[in-house]
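pls read this protein:
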Amino acid sequence: MAKTNPHMTATHSLSHLPVKVIIQGHERNPGTALNLDWLEGINVNFSAVERRTATLLGRRTVKKEWQAAWLLKAVACMDLTTLSGDDTPGRVKRLCAKARHPLRDDMAAALGIEHLRLTTGAVCVYHEMVETAVKELEGTNIPVAAVAAGFPHGLSPLPQRLAEIKASVEAGAKEIDIVITRGHVLTGNWQALYDEVKAFREACGEAHLKSILATGELATLRNVAKASMVAMMAGSDFIKTSTGKESVNANLNVTMVMIRMIREFEEQTGYKVGYKPAGGIATAKDVMNYQFIMKEELGDAWLQPDLFRIGASSLLADIERQLEHYLTGRYSANNRHPVG
């Protein structure tokens, strides 16, 4: 365990703030029939999207204890992730330890949250590391998420992609992050996309399905909007921006489009679908921008880990640095908060 900081005291306690994570119960999205008429009515005004994100973020600022409270909520919604070719069981074990105990004891005590048993929302790994992660997280409520279905390209034969999903579920994964075939979107083959995602959902069984759209490769925001809707019609529990391997990953304009589709889907069907931005979210400032948009567009329910996840690997270290600055007035070195 890292050395405690003697400058931290309980004078910065956040016990009076609503930082406790409350899981909102809601019925799982069962999917709907593919509605092509609904899709044809979807249009996106890029200029309007840009203006909305710019004005929304310009109005939002939080400081001191309120910023700390937002950052603690971000920790609880984080899918702590390692998806590298050189992953080892040792690295995954360290990641799981961090997921179970994301803040040092002295920091949690100084913030007045030691009784909350804060953890990250999930640990996300390749299939090869699922069993290791499941074993390390035994006795916690932290689910293991596995990337599957030919991640990150999504071009493996369909039977192979379905077998990957089933294997990870059998190994103990409670969440499956699949990647769609981008070609279905780029050619407007919505039936093929729907059938693919529906098959993935069936292969997941009781495990929750997060559908990665790889938005940086879908050419237009209208394609992003339509792909989001089709993925939800097919039964996705979450829609997710990116694999983190594309040249363009999560951004606020794409986020605005996707969560507007989530809102429309709920208005039309009554079912809530979660949202997961991923790729390039590395700083506390970054993640709070996403939280602000979620609150403004979808409401407080989408600030909880059953409906909001953040795919991240280095974000937690920066959040810890910001919390330490709040507590002590100084920043620690980056290497004091290793992840993985």
Observations:
- DSSP finds 13 helices and eight strands in the chain.
- The beta strands are 78-81, 122-125, 144-148, 175-179, 208-212, 238-240, 274-276, 310-312.
